[in-house]
Each structure stands twice: as C-alpha cells, then as structure tokens.
Amino acid sequence: HFFCPHSMLFCPPPHPRLQPTPLEELRELREQPIDPQAEQEIIDSIEEVYFSNDAFDMVQHELEKLPPELNLQELEEYRDKLKRQQAAVSKKVADLILEKQPAYVKELERVTALQTNLQLAAVICTNARRQLGVAKEGFTGASLGLLANQRRRHLLTGLLKSLRTIKTLQRTDVRLSEMLEEEDYPGAIQLCLECQKAASTFKHYSCISELNSKLQDTLEQIEEQLDVALSKTCKHFDVAHYTKVQLAYTLLGKTQTAMDQLHMHFTQAIHNTVFQVVLGYVELCAGNADTKFQKMQYKDLCTHITLDSYIPCLTDLCKALWEVMLSYHRTMQWHEEHDNMETSPAAAKSGDSVVDRSYVKKKLEHGLTRIWQDVQLKVKAYILGTDMSNFKYDDFIVVLDVISRLMQVGEEFCGSKSEVLQESIKWQSVNYFKHYHRARLEELRMFLENETWELCPVKSNFNIAQLHEFKFMGQCRSPSVSPSRQAASSTGLAQEELSLFQLYLLEGNPFEMHIEHKEEETEDVLASNGYESDELEKCVYQDYDNDSDSDVPEELKQDYVDEQTGDAPLKSVSRETIRSKKKSDYNLNKANAPILTNTTLNVIRLVGKYMQMMNILKPIAFDVIHCVSQLFDYYLYAVYTFFGRNDMYESSSLGLISSRLRTTLNRIQESLIEVNAGVHGAVEERKEKVPSPHLSQLVVLTNSGTLYGLAQRVVATESLVFLAEQFESLQSHLDTMMPAAKKPFLQQFYSQTVSTASELRKPIYWIVAARAIDYEQMLLLMAGVKWDIREIMSQHNVYVDVLLKEFEQFNKRLADVSRHVRIPLPVSNVLWEHCIRLANRTLVEGYANVKKCSNEGRALMQLDFQQFLMKLEKLTDLRPIPDKEFVETYIKAYYLTENDMEQFIKNHREYSMKQLANLVNVCLGSHINKKARQKLLAAIDDIDRPKR
What we know:
- Helix content is 66%, strand content 0%.
- By secondary structure, the protein is mainly alpha-helical.
- The protein folds into five domains: 84-238, no CATH class; 254-341 and 354-441, no CATH class; 451-472 and 592-676 and 687-768, no CATH class; 773-887, Methane Monooxygenase Hydroxylase, Chain G, domain 1; 896-947, no CATH class.
- It has a two-stranded parallel sheet with strand order 1-2.
- Helix 15 runs antiparallel to helix 16, helix 16 (419-450) packs antiparallel against helix 22 (598-616) and helix 31 runs parallel beside helix 33 (884-892).
- It is elongated, with a radius of gyration of 65 Å.
- The chain starts with 5 loop residues before the first helix and ends in a 6-residue tail after the last helix.
- Residues 205-232 form a coiled coil.
- GO terms for molecular function: SNARE binding.
- This is VPS50 EARP/GARPII complex subunit.
- Residues 43-334 form the Vacuolar protein sorting-associated protein 54 N-terminal domain.
- It comes from Takifugu rubripes (Japanese pufferfish).
C-alpha cells in the first residue's frame, strides 16, 4: 500500500539484466542517507488521492492536471518532484520490510513442523480404518446384516400384498365409470360400498384415505346420476331401467327418498313438457320476432298461440301429457307387481321394507290426483289463453273431442270428474256457442229469405244418419264419446271394456284418433237428378190419366230398384200400389223420397252439429237443446208467416188453428222474434232475438194457374213435417243428455211445438182450398134456383154440375202440380177435406139464403146433394166425406116440429145464427104462431156460440 506509482509515469523500467533483486533494492534504498524529517515531509506532500484505492488511475489523474499550454521546464520540474516522492515512499517501504524479515523466517519453520505432524496422523487414520473394515466384514455383515435383511423381506411381503389391494381399489374407479356408462347403477353401488369397506382396512395409508374420500364423492355422483335416471322414467317408462333404478335406491337404503324425488320429477316433467311444446309453436309462428318467449310465464305464453296452430299444439300437448301419465300409470303397475312378489330378497331382508312399501303405496296413490290436477291446470291455462268464439265449427268440435278424450283419460287415471277442465271448456263453449248460434240464426234467416221452396233432390233411402254431422251417434269408439260412455253400442263394447291405458299401454296415443276420424267422412245423399227414375215418373202419369194396364211399362210391374245404390227402396212401389193410390197420393214414383229443401237440410245439419257439441260437453246440454229448439221454432214460424197467416181464419168456424198451435206461435213471437229491428232496445235482449223473415220475391203465391203456389206450399209445409219427424227420432237421444231438472223443458218442446208441425197443414192448405174453387159463383147460382116447387124433381140443379166441374178442374191442377212436387196422401187429403168442407158449408149457406121453400124443394136439395156426393166419391178416396152430416142434418131440420127445433138449436151450435134463424123463419114460419117464432129466435140470440 505504500508503493507510490509516480515513478511508473515517467521513469522507464530498467533493463531486466540490469534490474537488481528486491532485497538488494531494499538494501540500497535503506543505505541511501536521507534525513528522516525531510523524507517525512516529502511523503506528507503526496496528494491524499494516491492513497484512496487500487482502482485509482494515476496516469489519467496527472494528465488531467496539465495546463492547457504546456511548458517543458515546468514539466521537468514537476516530474523531478514526483520522482523524489516515489523515492521517499520506496525507501519507507523497504525499511518496513527489512524490519519484519526475522519474524517471517521463524514462522515458516513452525509451518514446516506442523506439516510433518499432519502426515503422520494421516498414516495412523488410514491404518485404523483398514482394521475397522476387516471387523465390519467379519462380524456385522455376516450376522446382524442377515437378520436385518430377513426383517426387511418380511415387511416388503406384507407391503406387496397391501399394494396389490390398493392397486385393485384404485382400478375400481375406472370400472365404476364403465358401470355408470352402462347404467348398471345397482352394480356400481355394490362395488362402491365394497370398496369403501375395503378402504377402511387400509385407511392408515395416505393414498387410501384420499381414495376413501374419492369413493364417497363417487357414491354421491352415482346418486346424482341415479336421480337423473329416475327423472327419465317420467316421460318414457322402461321396466328394465326402472327396476335397476329402484334396486339401486334399495341398496342405498333410500326407497322413500326415491319416491319423493320421483314425484318432484313428475311435477317438473309436466311443467317442462307443456312449456316446451307451447314454446315450440309460439316461436315457430312468431318467426323472427325479438320477443323473449323463453323468459315468459307459461300462462302468458299460451296467449301467444295463433288460431292456425291452436289445434296441433293442443294435440301435441295432450300427447306429451299422456306420455307422462302413462309413465306414472306404469310406475304404479311396477310397484303393485313387485309388492306381490314375496320372493324379492331385497324386500325380505329387513323389517323396514314393509314400512317402505306402505309409504310408497300411499305416496303413489296420493300422487295420482296431484299429477292429474297439475295436468288439468296446465291444459286449463292453454284453453283459456285463446278466445275461441271465432273458431270454425269443425275446429271447435276437434278441440272438444280432444278435451273430452283427456277427461276420459283423467277418469281412468284417478277417477276424477275433471271439474277444472269441465269448467274451463264449459266457459269457452258457452262463449263460443252463443256467438255461433247467433250467427247460425242470422244465417238461417238469410237462407229462409232466399229460399224459393224448391225440392232438394235426395235419395229415396235418405236418412239423417248418412250426414257427416250425425256420424258421431254410431261411433262408440270415437274421441267424442263422453267419459261415462253411456251409449256404447254392442259392436263397440269389447273395445270399450278396455281402458285407454290398456289399449295404448305399449304403443300408440289416444290423441291421434280424431284425425283419422275426420278423414273417413264421406257423404252421398243427393240423387243425380230430381227424380230417381224418369221412366217411373212417366208411367205414373199415364196410369193416373188413362187407368190402363197396357200403358204401364213392364219394369214397373215389379218392384223398382234405386238407380243410385242398386238397393230396393224402403217401401217398394208396385203396379197395384200405383193403381190403388192414384187418386190421392200424387207422383208416386217419389213416394220414398223425403220432401225437403236446402234450408231444411241446413237446419238438420245444424242440429247434428249442436248435438255433437252437446254429446261431448254435457254441462252445456241445456243451453244447446234450447238453441236447437230455437232453430225449429224459427223454421216453423217462417213457414207459418210465409204461407199460413190469414185474417180469414177467425171468420171461418173450421177450427183451422188449434189453441195449442196458437199458443206456440205466440210464444215464438214473444221470445224469438225481434219486433222493431230499428229500435235500440236492450243490447242483450236484442242479441237473443232475430228479425222476422220475409218471403223471397221469387215465390209467387197469387197465381191461380199454380194453385196459388201449392208446389211451394207443399215443399215448405212437408219439409217442416219432415224436420219434425227427424226431431222425433232424436228425442230419446236428446233426453239422455238433458239434466234431470231440465227434462220438462224438452218434453214440453216436443208436446207443444214439434207435434204441432203437421197442424200447420190445415191453415196453409186452407188458403189454397178457399181460392181453388169459386164458392161465390155457386152461391149466386143457388140464389137463382126456385125452391118452393110443388112437384118432385128427377133432375138435379145446374149448380151441382158447375161445382163438380170445379172439383174436376181442381183435381187436374193437383195432378199438374204433382208433376213437379210429390203431393203426399195427408196433404191431398187435407186439400180435399178443406175444399169439400168449404163446398158443403157453401151449400148450407146457400140453403140458408132461401126465402121460400116447399117440401118438394127440400127433396130437391137432397137430390142435388146426393148427386154431388156420388160424383165426388169418384174423384176422391177420402172417406167419409167431410161435413156430409153438416149438410144432411141442416136439410132434414126443415121437417122438425117446434119442440124438436128448440132442442136442435141447443144441440147444434156449429150452425151460424143466420142459418138457425132461417130454419125457424122459412121452415116453421107457416106452421107456428108469431109468439112461438119469437121465442125460438130469442133462444138463438141467447146462445153464446164459442168459435171452434
């Protein structure tokens, strides 16, 4: 550290050969005589920086100190100064080294001695170690080592066994995964429990303690998977799958827990199923709408179903719910079968199994009603989510069909009467039906106002059962059968005895049937033309006009065959029949073809539709039957107002309208007919009523050539009678559907209204009869006859011939009309009866106008009347002749005594006061005194004559 580097800066190193050795150099330096004080001053004059550290760059330092302008002399002086300083430092160092040299030599000797001792110690240690090695090899390795190895071997053998078990335990993890993939849950649980038992033996190994916790996790994982497997049985029940799941729960000792979980899954399955079905349809119909349907409540989602997708969605909904209920049904079956199997080892092992079985049974039975309630509520929300009042009828019937079938499922599932479903569908039905019936009544009015009362050509064997609308009455297995299935036919009994759950246990779905039912509909009721056989029609007229066998074609001498169907008609028409009936039943070729119009057919179809709805939906049966009665009421009222209303009834004493018919017509007018359509009355009341219909302008009833529209009158009246007959045939069917409390309404409707249909014939055909024959002309002719003659006449009066000619003309015109429309026997009888009664009453009126009359005149009256009767009987088959006694009794009354006349007046109230007065004045006037006559006339005045 005392080495001064000054000398290195400026003094070049001496030549190696000339360079002295260090000791010599030191000595030289020491020998140089320098004043110690001066030497110390030189050393002190050295800058402090030269003593700082070894990294100091002295050359750089000195160069930096040089002034900008160099001076050689100054430089040399400065260099000499540095040299002096270096020389002083070197000398000082040399002195110090020389002072310490003896101590250094002494220490070096001690180190050499220590090295020698160490080498000796190393030799001793080597010898000791060699001797210890010999001892170890000879004693420890041969005896103690042998014992140690033996002990180690024994431990390792035990360890190996444990390791093999551990290896097997660890491999079970893979096997468990495989078993779970194979869905062998009982096997997996069995294996897991065995592993846990084994693992508890080796729990002292850290790896095993980890394995034990892993096995516990695996067991929990198996339980989770088992729960998922259990949930799968809610939609598609599989016996093998369910058996495995139940066995697995039994092994876990969680049978009751499984049952609780199962019911929770069923509830969830119902919710998820209906939500997914409805969501699918809503999203499908919504297209690319941004609405977040996924997040909607199910109830709100149901309101987004479109009318087009309503029925497919409802069907799919019921199909999906059926799958869930069928799975539950099959689950119950499985448990019943396994309860009966006493051989089950799992059940026999513990007393708890009896408790478990009892719990499971109760839980399942309780679950039936709960699940059905869930189903009902879901379907109710769907039903009430849409306003069905604008549905097409067929679509609405399909909805009712599906719900009816669902209610049948409910009854078989848990004996439920499905009050929730019934209430919701009843609400919709009443709403729909009011809307529908109102529209149908308006439609019926339009039909009636456009009806020209032409014949609708149907086949002779036409029956309402052939119409689509009445097919349901013969289909016991159709979905429209109500749950009670009261009217099962003998053909359908075998199938009906099987419940839906038995019929569709393994495949199929009860909600697929109505589609097939719809496709099967075919209807063929119309004839190819208005007549079923033109040849037949011709021959009837020939036979009628000529009464000749030669004019009847040969084929008519046998029974004719329906040309459309090839079947013989219900009532075959033979030649004898034609001959025997020719004068009364016109146009016999159509004896079997019902007389009805398009409007009649429309009403019948409507009745069928209404009955379909009623058959499916018993709760609104009364509402429907009430509406059915309104259809008939309106038709009857229309026929009456078009063809039968006449003010002259009251003046005639013929009793044309019975009190029952009048009551019915008044009732219809008050309850159904809207009197002033323009007046704004109560809205609700006006909704229930229909304006009175108006006859089409195309129908002319004033033309004498057509017998005052007789063809139209026959079609209208007989179509009403036909309609009444159809109603009669349906009475028993309607009666079974009516609630007991409402049955009197139905009975009254039939007894007061339906049965009065044929009574309309009298007033309607009376109008024709009153105009068809000129009764006024006859009265004028009779007024010109002299009755106070004095001799018996052998020739009748001209007025009789004129009257008979009128009847012949009437007969001919009837035949003309019958070429277009068949005139049934009851109609021709009513017409003839009216004409004859009017003629007879005209005769009596004519006789009552006589001022003077002799006994010979009375005989002439009888002669005239007998001539009239004789010729009339050839024209008509009507027997007896109506009102024959009315005329004969009046003529014979001229011969009565005073006392007999008084009794006659009391007993014969059918004669008018004028007619009775004439008997008193003309007959008895010459035989009795004035007082007696006045007494008899007073008796006539006193009699209160009710019009019959």
